[in-house]
Amino acid sequence: MRRQPSLFLLGLLLLKVTTTQAVLGNHPWEEQTWPEILQNFTLPCQLEEISSSSPSESVHALRISDIKVVGAIGNLEMTPDARMILKQQKWTERNQMQTCTQVVTVLSDFIKRFSPSVLPLSCPPVDEALPRVGNEYLRAQARQLVELMKKNKQVNFQDDWKLINVFFNAQSQCLPCPSSQKEGHVTSSMQELTRLLDFFHHEVPKAFVNLVDTSEVGNLSPSHQENGPRDLKGVCECSEDPSQLTSAVQRWYYQNAWEKLLASGRYDTQDTFTVIYQPFLQMNPSLFQDKQPSGHSLNVSSVALALSLWNGMVGPTGRKEELFPEEQGITMKCPTQEHPYLFTYKNSNYLNVSPRRFKEIEVRERTEFQCPDMKPSNVVPTSVHNLRPADIKVIGALGDSITAGNGAGSSPNNVLDVLTQYRGLSWSVGGNENISTVTTLANILREFNPSLTGFSTGTGNQDRANSFLNQAVPGARAEDLPGQARRLVSLMKNDTRISFQEDWKVITLFIGGNDLCDSCSDMVRYSPQNFTGNIGKALDILHEEVPRAFVNLVTILTISTLRELYQEEQVYCPRLILRSLCPCVLQSEDNSTELATLIELNKQYQEATHQLIDSGRYDTKEDFTVVLQPFLEHVPMPKTPEGLPDNSFFAPDCFHFHRKTHARAARALWNNMLEPVGEKTNLVLLENITDLICPSQDQPYFRTYKNSNYTYPTMSTGTTAASPTTAASRPDLNYGSQLECDDRTPSTSFPTSVHALKPADIQVVAAVGDSLTAGNGIGSKPDDLSDVTTQYRGLSYSAGGDASLDSVTTLPNILRKFNRNLTGFAVGVGNADDANAFLNQAVPGAKAEGLMKQIQTLVQKMKDDQRIDFPRDWKMVTVLIGTGDLCDYCTDSNLYSATKFSAHLRDALDFLHKEVPRALVNLVDFMNPIILREVFLGNQDKCPILQASSLCNCLLTVREGSPELIRMKEVINAYHTSIRELVETGRYDTREDFTVILQPFFENTKLAFHLDGSPDVSFFAPDCIHPSQKFHSQLSRALWNNMLEPLGKKMDFLDLAADIPLSCPTQEEPFLRTYRNSNYTYSANPAIENWGSDFLCSEQRSSSKAPTSVHQLRPADIKVVAALGDSLTTAFGAGAKNITNLSTAWRGLSWSIGGDGVLETHTTLPNILKKFNPYIHGFSTGTEKETAGLNVAVAGAVAQDMPSQARELVNRMKNSLEINLEQDWKLITLFVGSNDLCHYCENPESHSVKNYMQSIQQALDIFYKELPRTFINVVEVMELVGLRQIQGEECEAATDSTCPCFGRFLDNSPELQEMKNVNRQFQSGSSLITYSHQYMEREDFAVVVQPFFQNTMVPFDNKGKPDLSFFSVDCFHFSERGQAEMAIALWNNMLEPVGQKQTYNNFTYSRTRVKCPTSDNPYFYTLRNSRLLQQETDKSSRVPYWAVLLAAVGSFVVGVVLVLVLVWRTRKREGRAPVNLASTVF
């Protein structure tokens, strides 16, 4: 076909804003500014060849020039871009009409070139009251359109030819759910559309109707492409969750059903009317991007849809494919002289010319198979390398829809049946019938062992019993394999038919098609590194847990061959399904960059899979191996004798394998298993029936690397595999270690503190540094000096992950013994940019100055990688730098000074500290380069002096005893000191989830020596500078042991010749050691910058709809906060630095109502709540009354003031424009009583317990009467007697003046004892409010007493004196630190059940003490949801009041006991080293 000119649409896209207006009724269309470039455009079509002098009488001979009227109705509602702001997302009737109008505008302008008098009609408005699911609103629009045409004076309704476009969205229709799909099923939405078309058929003469499916219009924008099609489950409310395959088949089914209905002639009973189904086929959006000037109003979707319609009308029906091939740009089709008419089903000969699948009679392949020796081994083998076919007892498989058998047994034209999983026919694990009728690997093995188990039979998903050990899942990608592997292991362990420890198993894994098909949508997610990394995780699970297993890893096929089938017009395939399933393979043009990228990615998948197995990591156990079976790597598209792609090898969707292909694949897999490693077939012609080979007498075993005498190749760089080499050139895999630890379990609950981190909690490992960490020369042969430039990252002591601990000792391999899902480690060789380097970002030759760049790259990689949950995963980062700086010190003593070195290191660690949550950083003290002198001086005949001296001239070429060497030793000591001092500042211990630990084992290294006294150079690479694998193994052991040694007691030397066993965490000390869990005190205490808190909660959702019950109230449901009380709530003096500003009310810092800053800098109740709902109202800010918000507390207030404060608060809420009084949930905190107690002795009657309680109840009564949807905290008054101990020169006021009734009496006096009793009575009285029935009658109101102040503990510092940092300058009111402690205690109380609330506050600083709601208990606790009060409608069935009181008293007693225990434990510690904060109780 000759290329069509594309200038027309390009002109359209380059035009400036076009404004069009149309009014319903008799008013004509008004076109205000149609651009000159479009007006003067010469259409590429030859008008004289295709125009006609007289109008057509038949719709099947209708020319474009005959069309006089263009109209449209329907659903053109495009989903708003998710990146738009909220106001822009109000997708209204205007937007939909504008899009519809633009389509009609563009389409009409096309037609004007043939019919200048064509009249475009505006789209009738959509009635917003009508539902959009379904098509009911279309009938109303249709009636409006018909009325408009009848009334318009420019339209001859009876004689003018009309082009009517009916837009609908198939994704908004309820298609049949997967479980109920039947051929011929007609949905209710189709019936609605049919009635609509019947209306047009009956009412409108001379009409050509396009039924236009706009499903893919919204997918043009990048955001829509990312989101994909709308989930049918949400629309249809199917009980099943449709997969990508299900959705694609359903859409095809819907389109096919319409094509059949319309082609049946239902609307061709009159010669003047027809309906044509026009699918809008998805196109590459890049064709439209960057072609519109700024300010352009024409919608990309409108232009695309108009052009789609035009090309659809002038193209044969039933054969409409992609409209805009990339290589042709944006094209416009023209009518031809041979066919100048608009295409209909009748003039297209639709039923006669539509290609159909070959309806050949299926011939089942019969297989006769008999081998001379089909017996098992005489004795059950213990080695996988001596495994005969008859020894196999169990078979299983993992993978995607190919292994699940989708469509394998489907009849040729039954596309819907592709959803059926014919697991009994699956090539690698199916067990239907026997080998004489069904050829599968399982049926072949059953010829050797009829007792084989594990195979699948029949049909169904992976959860069906008959699927057994076929755990493949349709749609699965490599990232899903670890989950499949876990289920497979569980099934094998729990099935009584399987002896898990004794039975030999064959497991086949095949994956990758879906990864490649979606790769262009997310190149990071589907990178070769992620692909093989996920396969590796699955194989690691099998390797670790499954004894006696032979695993087949079948490499991914070359998927681009699928394009041959897709592009061949003579072969029928449902191309809509193919495009939906594999867009990245099929939608690119030949010779395009996108296709080249895909083909290269396909190769990288194959190569990376080879590298994974060639690493030898799965050949460390005698009873386990993974063998790569490459027979599909280069399989071509099967062809017919005529040379056409043979679709009989495929299921009816032309994507999945048919049973014939399953049989051929089974044969090829079997033969691959018997071919030696290194000599396996990697190309199979599916057209040919391959004979099954038999085990030979000489080699009766399944072939492995060992029984094939195969040597794994050394990988060269990055992702390309090198050719096989001799064993001498390979890294030694005999530097393994034994780990004898009994407890390898993670923490029982996910740790939030780095000081409670177990080895199994580490999920990510990373490293930065120089050539030592990069692994230069680790695996080099002793005489291969040039190989030292090779970076053996997989063997690096701190970040390598080659093989396993049994053969390669590295820190990641040790950690993988605790957590097999560890990620981040490097494998193989290559530089830092290669995918296999992963998070080993060390750079050879790096110095401290370049460390920041490495750290920044590392952090970005962790943030971007799909395998890492950056905020949640615990990370271990190892940093080692400094030797390179020292080696160049003499060249520039200023640039490489200890001060500069320390500054660069500090900046890099500061960046980690700022950017990375949940991290333990190992700062390894560098190797003292002086030992390199010893190596060279003792091996002058073996070490390359000239080359090495160029690397470290400042140390290797200076004379022994020279001033230069003495100076270098001083600088080395200065470097060591600077590292130690940097960590000792404590600057990296200001967060609970981060620390830097100095690991000093490398500081003093003792070389190994031969008997003749010369240093043992086997510990070094050929350059005598870089450590060899032998050295790295010792480094790994020493680092691991250092990590388990407490600070202050860490080993600071390394003896290379020593036998270093790996230590284990103990039951008493299970954590990786930090300063805190080592009880270590830094020489300089860390400076605390603020009293904020870290927010670690994952459960932040609000209720799905606003709750009506206070007992189901989540934090995110709170919309309004408020508070009343005295000077503690006004935050009197909270920010005061001296007596002059003591009286300032720092309301923005108030514990219960302040909203200054954010939680990370200021801990208050509103700032915690803002993490759940950022739009909360009512909090205070600053110090001015105007910004007090709903903080009505007043300094000096007593209980009698609470009713007036309550009334004031209610009035403020009612008068606020920001508060919806009826709908918004409100959280009010009431705290009062300190002033009543402080002045009780002066007027006992006025400040009595009775008056105190009555005043609080009066305030609560006001709230109960006036405020709907309210949760009230009543905080118990604190114990004030402890304030007597807070005194000193720093206090600007004495207790006897600020609180006379507790300050003026002597210790043990009757008056003071009476005050203690009154204090208790105040607390006891308020504690009963929670249990008061008078506030339980409403479902939306609750009062809960929060008792954290019931037993008040005064904080003490490490000198045993009251810690005044918690108090303001008067030593009575709380400082910001004290306010923060109150906020944390209140919040935590709210999340604790009534009867189990903490009744004391232990003042200890920690940024992670803020509790989190859980998925099991997401609500604020009330009496009811604490299950202390049964929820009964009958009031007589309530819990007895005495029982509730007993619970309250019990809670009080428990609190007292807990406090006494804390006091005892505190005093017991007095003889030990001081702690940061001690406390006691009064």
If you had to describe this structure to a student in words, what would you say it looks like?
- This protein is 30% helix and 9% strand.
- The chain contains 41 helices and 23 strands.
- The strands form 7 sheets. Strands 4-3-5-6-7 form a 5-stranded parallel β-sheet, with helices on both faces.
- Helix 5 runs parallel beside helix 6 (188-203), helix 34 packs parallel to helix 36 and helix 36 packs parallel to helix 39 (1310-1327).
- The longest helix is centred in the last third of the chain and has 28 residues, at 1441-1468.
- It is globular, with a radius of gyration of 39 Å.
Compact overview of the structure:
The chain is an alpha/beta fold.
Outline the low-pLDDT stretches: 1-42, 78-92, 178-186, 218-240, 283-296, 321-329, 352-361, 714-730, 1431-1449, 1456-1482
How confident is the prediction overall: mean pLDDT? 82
Termini, distance in Å? 95 Å
**Which percent band covers the strand fraction?**
5-15%
Radius of gyration over C-alpha positions, nearest whole angstrom: 39 Å
Count the E strands.
23
Judging from the principal axes of the Cα atoms, what is the shape? globular
Q: Quickly count the helices.
A: 41
Largest pleated sheet = 5 strands, parallel
Which strands sit side by side, in order, in the main sheet?
A: 4-3-5-6-7
Structural class: alpha/beta
